[in-house]
Write a structure and sequence with these properties.
Chain lengths: 92, 338
């Protein structure tokens, strides 16, 4: 069973991403936790510049630093992978 | 034949990652940032000449210097060789692998077909390690691949003997000697001194902090050099690619250098280096803002004089910050005993 803190965090991440990228035509419920955020099948239509914006927003909000592309490719796969990374590394 | 399995790890950058991995296999446990820092890999150069189709910049030392400088400062010895004839190059590689010696090779990145198509471009200075022969191919440890990969013989031959700028000519290397005792204090400080010297003292107008300032001023002239808005947009967006996408470890290697200084601080018990690590990390964060700003205005084709002026000011602020940082680092390197 998923714990409540994890569910809250995932919801918070979705809102953060949508606010950062100014996505207004979708609700957070439209983004499944395990849906790919990047690549050809991504629901939000994100690109590498959006990825950098998300990386910087996560750093500001949670104090987590994602240094390089090799790392961000795996961390930014979906909402679950971002949440896992934040839980393990957050300083805020 | 050695039976020691090759331990694959991903790395941010192919050359420093390859040197770190091949040394680790040979028994010298050295991290990628430590390889990068000792070799004095951090750099800035702005290039605008007839040799280049459009102005560009680099944020690391010349390919090959990482291995050479690390060797000079630690006493590690590598054997290296280039080949005129592809068959000789292939025979030598096969001979070494049959002896159980993993070998680092310079390749054209485009032929690394175990990586997704959209990331593969023709760049002749991609370093990988061939760990063993497998059927009619090779097992490859590539810093950009999540695990060991298989590459067919034909692709490797094309990759090692591709033509063009920085042609690999079958270049390979592997360590043949690792000193029993390495004076890391000396190696670290020599690496720091050389990098800081290049950044603030080298009397060349397009290198180091002077190069960053030149970049900040010249960007206003880019519209006159571009064919059209589409071209200008592409070149401005490339600033983000050069700083973030090309195995830089983020912020044009500034984050990797911060990690080096942090690791060096712990290794040498030197708190000054810890403080410097935090400063360059902060400088890197601001470089990342430059990246994002350039990517945004390039994508929106919002490239008028005012916007480019804003971008130039952000870059000039990086020059100020790096001038102060590398001057302080150079002073520190002169005060320390090693």
């Amino acid at each position: 069973m998923e714990n409540i803190a994890g569910a809250e965090l995932k919801s918070e991440i979705k809102i953060l991403i949508m606010e950062t990228l100014n996505i207004t035509d979708m609700a957070k419920e439209d983004v499944a936790d395990d849906a790919p955020l990047f690549g050809k099948d991504n629901a939000l239509g994100l690109d590498s510049i959006d990825a950098l914006e998300i990386v910087m927003a996560l750093q500001e909000r949670y104090g987590v630093r994602i240094d390089d592309k090799n790392q961000s490719r795996f961390i930014l796969q979906n909402i679950v992978s971002i949440a896992d990374f934040i839980i393990q590394n957050r300083t805020k | 034949m050695s039976s020691k399995p090759f331990e694959h790890r991903m790395a941010a950058h192919c050359e420093s990652g390859t040197v770190s991995a091949i040394l680790r296999h040979a028994g010298m446990d050295i991290s990628e940032p430590m390889v990068f820092g000792i070799s004095g890999g951090i750099f800035f150069g702005y290039f605008e000449s007839k040799k280049f189709p459009f102005p560009t910049f680099v944020v690391r030392s010349r390919p090959g210097r990482i291995r050479a400088n690390l060797a000079r400062r630690t006493g590690v010895k590598f054997r290296s060789e280039r080949f005129r004839d592809p068959s000789s190059g292939e025979r030598e590689l096969d001979r070494l692998l049959s002896l159980g010696v993993p070998v680092a090779c310079q390749t054209d990145f485009f032929y690394m077909n175990y990586l997704p198509d959209h990331v593969r471009v023709h760049i002749n200075v991609h370093f990988v390690i061939l760990t063993e022969i497998e059927g009619d191919g090779y097992i490859v440890s590539d810093s950009y691949s999540p695990g060991l990969a298989l590459l067919d013989r034909d692709s490797l031959r094309k990759a090692r003997f591709a033509g063009g700028s920085f042609a690999p000519r079958g270049f390979l290397f592997y360590p043949v000697f690792i000193p029993e005792r390495i004076d890391f204090r000396k190696a670290v400080w020599k690496g720091i001194k050389s990098a800081a010297f290049q950044m603030v003292r080298l009397p060349v107008p397009f290198v180091g902090v002077k190069g960053i300032r030149l970049f900040s001023k010249r960007i206003a002239a880019w519209p006159a050099l571009a064919r059209d808005t589409e071209h200008l947009s592409h070149e401005v967006m490339k600033i983000n690619v050069l700083l973030e996408d090309q195995g830089t470890g983020g912020a044009g290697f500034r984050f990797m250098y911060a990690t080096f200084l942090r690791e060096a601080s712990a290794m040498l018990g030197d708190s000054d280096l810890r403080g410097m690590s935090e400063r360059i990390m902060e400088i890197g964060d601001r470089w990342r803002e430059v990246s994002l700003f350039a990517a945004r205005i390039g994508k929106r084709r919002d490239l008028d004089r005012a916007r480019l002026g804003e971008l130039g000011s952000m870059i000039n602020a990086r020059a100020d910050a790096e001038e102060s940082f590398f001057n302080d680092l150079l002073d520190l390197s002169k005060k320390k005993k090693y």
